[in-house]
TrEMBL record:
The keyword Cell division does not apply. This is Type-2 serine--tRNA ligase. Residues 225-504 form the Aminoacyl-transfer RNA synthetases class-II family profile domain. SUPFAM superfamilies: Class II aaRS and biotin synthetases (SSF55681). The lineage of its organism: Archaea, Methanobacteriati, Methanobacteriota, Stenosarchaea group, Candidatus Methanofastidiosia. Keywords: Ligase. It comes from the Archaea. It is an enzyme of class 6 (ligase). InterPro entries: aa-tRNA-synth_II, aa-tRNA-synth_II/BPL/LPL, SerS_tRNA-bd. Pfam families: tRNA_bind_4. Its EC number is 6.1.1.11. One of its GO terms (molecular function) is serine-tRNA ligase activity. The keyword Membrane does not apply. It comes from Candidatus Methanofastidiosum methylothiophilum.
Length: 510
């Protein structure tokens, strides 16, 4: 790696002859420390160098070249600080501004990218032999200070790598299987429910209207989750906001990959009726929503609808130091739907854009969370084996926090502690248990310290804090159950019927 930076320091006033000599001496003889700081002892030969110095009336320009250690942009900032001190003290001159005029990054390539790569802030990318040459221009102090260049270098290598991984899918590895259960039906639940008139598709993409019988089933699922899993383990209910501002997703990492699936939200520019008069009148006359006129009166999006419930729950503890007696913190939210813009057509109530989940979140010491995860898995197994009596399995998959920030693969650890376990059910209408695609109906994750760090959540004794969460999909629990147990409630397991209570009558349509 070779990083060549032409940087200019603009001065508050002209440098005198003495000043010019002083700066020359400083650059030639007094910058050793600045140049080797951070370079490992055995790599001193790769220390950055100042290749060129030009002093004009009111500017000092230098060319800095570095390898990977003590990178040129960091050296440029160190140099600014030292020059400021020197010029201020000896000549009462300040540095007004620093400009990275041209930054040429020469990056070694192990693989030559097959397709052109584009990166924001990078003017041009060319390939010369085994090197990629990235050129950036006109960089300000903030850009040079704030790791932007380092992130551009990582992003470039990620993009090269991605061209070779191609469509490498997410990780999947079987962990456990329940016992085999003979299904009571092989029919597709959504088709059956539509035929009965219990469901209505729409009004928007990936949305359903759940008539009373299905609403009752969804609420039954919710009661089972709360009574059989969450309450016995000590979880308490919170109500989290369902409109999530970008600031929260900036911290969770959702903004490095979930963007194509977010439902963005924009408030009106004004709530003054006069601003909206034209739109209102247009509706009154045409009885149509004039979207083009509405768009003109919308602010920029402030965020989006809930994508997963946990980010606002972490935000609730942002910057807090929590008394150690509180751990593990066990909370859950079931107060509203989540939204994801899914690709492709509608696929029944198991694949929807608007879905209901219960999400427990847990924060505590690593050993507390490892123990809790075992207990949650026992409770889940009890529900699926003894209440639903369904056939299900678990798999070790790409953790949701990696998938949702645009990554594939799996946590490296061999102990299989941090990461996501998916729960999947056999859907007999899709085919045999061995050949068909099973339905992912919930997950359970230990996140490690990713979110506790991102939100600066601390223990009063300053112990290491981890977190985790579990997404319990109510539609997906319902489909898992109905796909194997059918719609004849007389045949449903006794334990399930205890929770169901009275099954409501459906309104008859003629
Ligand atoms: N946050 C987890 C997920 O999105 C659980 O809801 O999958
Ligand atoms: Zn979560």
């Amino acid at each position: 790696m070779k990083l060549h930076l032409n940087v200019e320091y603009l001065l508050s006033r002209s440098l005198t002859g003495d000043g010019v000599q002083r700066v020359k001496k400083f650059i030639a003889e007094e910058t050793k420390e600045i140049l080797i700081k951070g370079v490992p002892k055995d790599k001193i030969s790769e220390s950055p160098k100042i290749l060129d110095l030009k002093i004009s009336d009111d500017a000092i320009s230098v060319a800095i070249e570095s390898g990977t250690y003590a990178r040129s942009h960091a050296v440029a900032i160190r140099l600014k600080n030292s020059l400021s001190m020197l010029l201020g003290k000896e000549f009462k001159i300040g540095i007004k501004k620093i400009v990275g005029q041209k930054y040429t990054l020469t990056l070694d390539l192990e693989k030559i990218p097959k397709d052109p790569i584009k990166i924001p802030f990078v003017d041009s990318i060319s390939i010369e032999g085994n090197n990629a040459i990235l050129i950036l221009r006109d960089l300000d102090e903030e850009f040079l200070t704030k790791n932007h260049v380092d992130r551009i270098i990582s992003l470039f290598y990620d993009k090269v790598e991605a061209q070779f991984w191609g469509g490498k899918g997410e990780h999947w590895e079987l962990i456990s299987k329940s016992k085999e259960i003979t299904p009571l039906t092989t029919k597709d639940p959504t088709t059956e429910l539509l035929a009965l008139g219990w469901l209505k598709q729409g009004p928007s993409q990936g949305q359903w209207f759940y008539h009373a019988p299905i609403a009752t089933l969804l609420r039954t699922m919710e009661r089972i989750a709360v009574e059989e899993i969450l309450k016995p383990l000590g979880f308490i209910e919170v109500i989290a906001p369902k409109l999530v501002p970008f600031e929260i997703w900036e911290k969770t990492g959702h903004l490095s990959g979930s963007e194509p699936e977010i439902y963005y939200v924009s408030p009106p520019v004004s709530r003054d009726i006069s601003v909206w008069e034209e739109v209102i009148d247009l509706y009154k006359i045409t009885k149509k929503a004039h979207v083009d006129k509405i768009r003109e009166r919308m602010r920029d999006p402030i965020g989006g609808m809930t994508y997963a419930q946990c980010p606002p729950m972490y935000w609730a503890f942002d910057g807090k130091t929590i008394d150690d007696s509180e751990f593990p913190i066990l909370i859950y939210d079931k107060s509203g739907p989540s939204y994801r813009w899914e690709a492709g057509g509608r696929q029944g109530i198991e694949r929807v854009n608007e879905f209901w989940r219960i999400e427990p979140v847990f924060i505590g010491y690593p050993d507390q969370l490892i123990e809790l995860k075992e207990k949650m898995m026992e409770r889940y197994a009890y529900v699926f084996d003894k209440i639903f009596e369904i056939e299900w399995r678990t798999a070790w998959v790409t953790p949701f926090y990696m998938a949702q920030s645009g990554q594939t693969g799996v946590e490296k650890e061999t102990e299989r502690i941090k990461g996501t376990i998916d729960y999947e059910s056999w859907i007999p209408s899709r085919g045999s248990r061995d050949k068909s695609e099973w339905l992912e109906f919930q997950n359970l994750s230990i996140v490690g310290d990713k979110y506790t760090k991102a939100f600066s959540i601390k223990s009063s004794k300053n112990k290491e804090l981890w977190s985790g969460c579990s997404g319990i999909g109510l539609q997906r629990w319902t489909v898992s159950f109905l796909a194997q147990k059918g719609l004849d409630s007389d045949k449903w397991p006794k334990e399930f019927k205890k929770y169901l209570g009275e099954f409501p009558r459906q309104i008859k349509f003629v």
